[in-house]
Amino acid sequence: MRDDPRRRDLAAYPFRIEMVPRFGDMDLNRHLNNVAVARFYEEGRVRFHFDLHRRPGLERFRGFIAHLAIDYLAEGHWPDPVEIGVGVVHIGGSSYRLGLAMIQRGACIGLCDSVLVHRDEHGNAPLPPLLREALESLRLRAE
């Protein structure tokens, strides 16, 4: 993920939010600590899904994290705001992968991949057509 230049470009992400780090998000070196960084990605992922759940017919779909990977590319600093971009990078049969970027001061300081598995009351389930269509509309944009 770190070698794809479009992953570092906030404009490539169809969903974006801005967050302000708190003083407690710093480590002893005055950088954003790894727990805070993971929370920023979590907030971006949750808000992406909250927005997705607002679409008619998607209010009740359930996705669960199967894999999460974070690449730290540069140090983040308090108190500068961070922007989180979220986009779909892969759609499978019962799962999909979100790509997230963290931007601060105009530079990409980190990337995250989250694989989510769709589940119904019986366990893992194929992605419903309506969900698949919504995910397609939220793909990471090409260069």
TrEMBL record:
Is Zinc given among the entry's keywords? no
Q: Which Gene3D superfamilies match?
A: Hotdog Thioesterase
List the Pfam families hit by this protein, alphabetically: 4HBT_2 (PF13279)
Q: What class of enzyme is it?
A: hydrolase
InterPro entries reported for this sequence: HotDog_dom_sf
Q: Which GO terms describe its molecular function?
A: hydrolase activity
Q: What is its EC number?
A: 3.1.2.-
User: Has UniProt tagged this entry with the keyword Repressor?
Assistant: no
The protein's UniProt keywords, in alphabetical order, are: Hydrolase
Descriptive protein name: Acyl-CoA thioesterase
